[in-house]
Each structure stands twice: as structure tokens, then as C-alpha cells.
Design a protein that fits this description.
Order of helices and strands: EEEEEEEEEEEHEEHEEE
Structural class: mainly beta
Radius of gyration: 31 Å
Number of domains: 2
Number of helices: 2
Largest sheet: 6 strands, mixed
Length: about 290
């Protein structure tokens, strides 16, 4: 400041709790989340580059009577085959149709006498056909950008050395992830953490009224935050992430809060407005 004084703009203090827990109500597990074999499932997906694919085509000609509307509903299909499921980018969808006097597409062209209203869903289309003349509809297409879901890619990650006492498998179904590199990174990261049994703190009751630190902990520590906990009886000693918590108030003034903890590794973690999510030095793909 101009008068040579100092103004504290921001101040923080690490959250630390040392043997101040209500041990009689603690719940601690050992090896609850052990995993020495991980099945990683990655969704295999392809998206059309342009909105020019015919995702639905009328399978055969249909006859219409003048003035009588008809509703036709169809499911999207992969024109090249192979996809287990086909969705559509509904914002890109258009339609094309044709109608003639005869079912084989001959005779008078009556396309101008046919009104088509289309409603596009993510997996199917609904057409309402309104003819002003007797006709055969010989073409009815839904065209747009397709999203194709193929059979998922399943890969096993395991540590055979850690399986001497048994195989403990978990499955990561990355339903919204189509990059196998990211599934690989996440599975191997988890395998490194969980291949041997760890202590899991399911409930760690703490009296908030003990000190200002404890009361701030109750008020400020939310799921996802990191704090240091130490409890000699169970051997808990280190940094943990808070996965959740419960709290109760009694006698109108005393508060007990009980966080659910997961061990925090030495890996790098992003901090909002500080870290870079795509920092390549972390070893994860961008």
C-alpha cells in the first residue's frame, strides 16, 4: 500500500485433523475396493463428416388415398451395415420423397400432390403423409448426419503378481468415451492404486465444536476437497479426498460431521483457475 502497509488479498490454511475423532463410532474397511484385474470397456463410435447419409429409406411403395393422412415411423439404419445402434444428429436432418400413379414409379408424377411432415428423433423418424390425390409413395428418405455405435472394445488390465491371494475384478464401462487411450490411462491409474488392499474410511465422526479449525472443516469441506487426517488407533495418517459426509446437530448447539474418505495419491490433480486440464506432462492424452 502507499503507506508501506500490507493488505492480505487471499489466505488459506491446510485442513488437518489429528486424533480428534470420535473413535467409537468410526467405520473403517480394509480392501473394500481392491482391484487387481480391471476390465475396461470403451464405446466404439463413428460420426458422419457430412449430413448426406440416408439413415432411413422406405422399404417398399405404399398406396395412399386422396385426403387420408398416413403416419409412417422408421428406425435409422447403417447403410453400410455393421453398427449395432444408429442415432442421428437431429439438427442436420432433411427428407426426400417421391410419389407416382403406379407402384413401380411409372405414370404421372404426383410428388407435388403429397405433403410430408417429419419429426426426427435420435433413433427414429416419424412421417405424416397427406395426399391430395390417389397415389403410390415410392420414395421416402430421412437424410442427415449419422452417429454409429459399434460393439464396444473390451480390454483386460491386470497385475498377476498382486493376484497371489485371489483375483479381484472390477469393470469400467466408459459408455460415453470413444477414445481407448483414455480408458487405458484411467484403468492403469486405478490398477496402480487398488491392486493391493487399502484402508477405506467409511465414516469418521468429528466434533465440530472442538476448535475453529474443526468448525471451518464442517462448514467448508465439501465432497472433492482434500484434507489431512490422522488417527493412531486405525493407522490413518495422510491426505484423503472427501467423497461425501453426513452431519447431525444435538442439544441445539453441538455438531458432529462424519466425512467418507478415500486415500489421496501423489498424482497430479487440477485445481480450478490454477491448473491446466490438458497439461501434457501428466501423461494423459489431450
Amino acid at each position: 500500500m502507499e503507506d508501506a502497509g500490507s493488505l492480505v488479498l487471499s489466505e488459506s490454511q491446510p485442513a488437518s485433523f489429528d486424533n480428534t475423532m470420535l473413535t467409537e463410532s468410526m467405520r473403517v474397511s480394509y480392501g473394500k475396493h481392491q482391484a487387481n484385474r480391471i476390465r475396461g470397456i470403451t464405446a466404439v463410435r463413428k460420426v458422419d463428416a457430412a449430413a448426406t447419409t440416408t439413415l432411413y429409406r422406405l422399404p417398399s411403395a405404399i398406396q395412399l388415398t386422396a385426403g387420408t393422412p398416413l403416419t409412417v415411423r422408421g428406425t435409422y439404419r447403417d447403410p453400410n451395415g455393421g453398427a449395432s445402434y444408429v442415432n442421428a444428429d437431429t439438427s442436420t436432418m432433411t427428407n426426400d420423397y417421391a410419389a407416382f400413379a403406379n407402384s413401380d414409379g411409372t405414370g404421372t408424377d404426383l410428388t407435388a400432390s403429397l405433403s410430408v411432415a417429419a419429426t426426427y428423433g435420435t433413433s427414429e423418424v416419424e412421417f405424416v403423409l397427406t395426399p391430395s390425390a390417389n397415389m403410390w409413395v415410392t420414395q421416402l428418405d430421412a437424410i442427415g448426419k449419422g452417429i454409429y455405435l459399434y460393439d464396444p472394445l473390451s480390454v483386460i488390465y491386470e497385475d498377476t503378481t498382486a493376484q497371489n491371494a485371489g483375483v479381484f475384478q472390477i469393470t469400467f464401462d466408459m459408455a460415453y468415451q470413444d477414445d481407448p487411450r483414455k480408458t487405458d490411462a484411467f484403468a492403469n491409474y486405478t490398477l496402480g492404486l487398488e491392486k493391493t488392499p487399502n484402508v477405506t474410511v467409511d465414516r469418521l465422526p468429528i466434533m465440530a465444536n472442538i476448535s475453529g479449525m474443526h468448525m471451518y472443516g464442517f462448514l467448508m469441506l465439501e465432497p472433492g476437497t482434500r484434507a489431512n487426517f490422522k488417527e493412531d488407533q486405525t493407522g490413518i495418517d495422510g491426505d484423503y479426498f472427501i467423497n461425501g459426509y453426513e452431519a447431525e446437530m444435538f442439544a441445539g448447539r453441538y455438531v458432529i460431521f462424519s466425512p467418507v474418505l478415500r486415500t489421496a495419491s501423489n498424482s497430479s490433480f487440477a485445481i480450478w483457475d490454477v491448473s491446466q486440464w490438458d497439461n501434457s506432462s501428466w501423461g494423459f492424452p489431450d
